[in-house]
Amino acid sequence: MGMSVTISAATAEDAEQIFKLQYLCFQSEAELYGNYLIQPLTQSLDSLKGELASDTVLVARLGDEVVGAVRGSTDDDGTGKIAKLCVHPRLQGHGLGARLLRGVEEALADGSKAARFRLFTGRKSESNLRMYRKAGYVAVGGRTASDGVELVMLEKETTDYAVSA
Q1: Which backbone phi and psi does 138 adopt, to 5 degrees?
Q2: pTM, rounded to two decimals
Q3: How far, in Å, CA of 149 to CA of 136, rounded?
Q4: Are 88 and 68 in contact (CB under 8 A)?
Q5: CA–CA distance, 158 with 117 (Å, rounded to integer)
Q6: pLDDT tens digits along 82-112
Q7: Strands (DSSP E) found in 98-137
Q8: Domains in the chain, start-ordered, CATH in brackets?
Q9: Taking a C-beta distance cutoff of 8 angstroms, is the pair 32, 129 a contact?
Q10: Of 44, 81, 59, which is closest to residue 12 (Cα–Cα)?
């Protein structure tokens, strides 16, 4: 490759690249669940632009190309919610997802003083579950999404983040 991947805050100009990347990355999840109506595949570009304006959004760049993304926000009870972590298929398996996860945790812990981090992933998504467990997340519940996919809710206290960061 010759270039290193950098992680930084997303800008409004990144919206279209993030949108296309998300669509590409979540195809494998849709295939795993036999459901192409999962939220990352049905989200509109305008909705994504709204998240860029209101949430913490990080991107991984290889040169000018966005090759990874993650979103985070903090709710009123101090829970840092992490969502739509994705890495371009050609770069998966090299720790980029873990770097994005650490980056959004750091941003949420510093910027909004989150007391805990929470995320959801599909019950069948073993590689995702493995990465989150390795990062210190534990399953605390589950639910069925509006698209019918069974999700696992995972959490990690920010005190655990401080120790593992």
Answers
A1: -125, 145
A2: 0.91
A3: 24
A4: yes
A5: 7
A6: 999 999 999 999 999 999 999 999 999 886 6
A7: 116-122
A8: 5-164 (3.40.630.30)
A9: no
A10: 59
